[in-house]
């Protein structure tokens, strides 16, 4: 009986150890800013290791700069003249890291009305 337990433990260890956690290395993480109504722009704070830059798809424009010389912290502006959800990408040196954090500082509607930042969210995914 003890032999079966050992074999079962080894088998489970190999099964878990062989799981693929997805790709690694340089690439893009996709991010979406959404709210209860269409968005025209947002100011975000992005924190995490290995950030190389930011990109906006289509007509979206993304401007960003580091805000700390000590830690990897960036303040970015995402603008989309069409309005709706705001899509952008974060260029990183390793897409397998899950430690990118994002927070909304301010947001506006397409007609430049200020929106309450607490009702706007940002989601980062592989």
Q: What tags apply to this protein structure?
A:
single chain; 126 residues; mainly beta; Immunoglobulin-like; five-stranded antiparallel sheet; four-stranded antiparallel sheet; 9 strands; disordered N terminus
Largest sheet: 5 strands, antiparallel
Average pLDDT level: 85
Share of residues in helices:
10-25%
CATH topology: Immunoglobulin-like
CATH architecture: Sandwich
Described by its quaternary structure, the protein is single chain
Work out the helix count.
1
Please trace the helix and strand order, writing H or E for each element: HEEEEEEEEE
Walk me through what this model shows.
This protein has one helix spanning 2-17, and strands at 27-34, 39-47, 51-55, 61-66, 73-84, 86-92, 101-108, 114-115, 121-125. The protein has 126 residues and is mainly β. It has one domain (23-125): Immunoglobulin-like, CATH 2.60.40. It has a five-stranded antiparallel β-sheet with strand order 4-5-2-7-8, with no helix packed on it. The protein is globular and about 40 Å long. Residues 3-8 and 10-18 have low confidence and may be disordered.
Please describe the topology of this protein:
Blueprint (H helix, E strand, L loop, with lengths): L1 H16 L9 E8 L4 E9 L3 E5 L5 E6 L6 E12 L1 E7 L8 E8 L5 E2 L5 E5 L1
Antiparallel strand pairs: 1-6, 1-9, 2-5, 2-7, 3-6, 4-5, 7-8
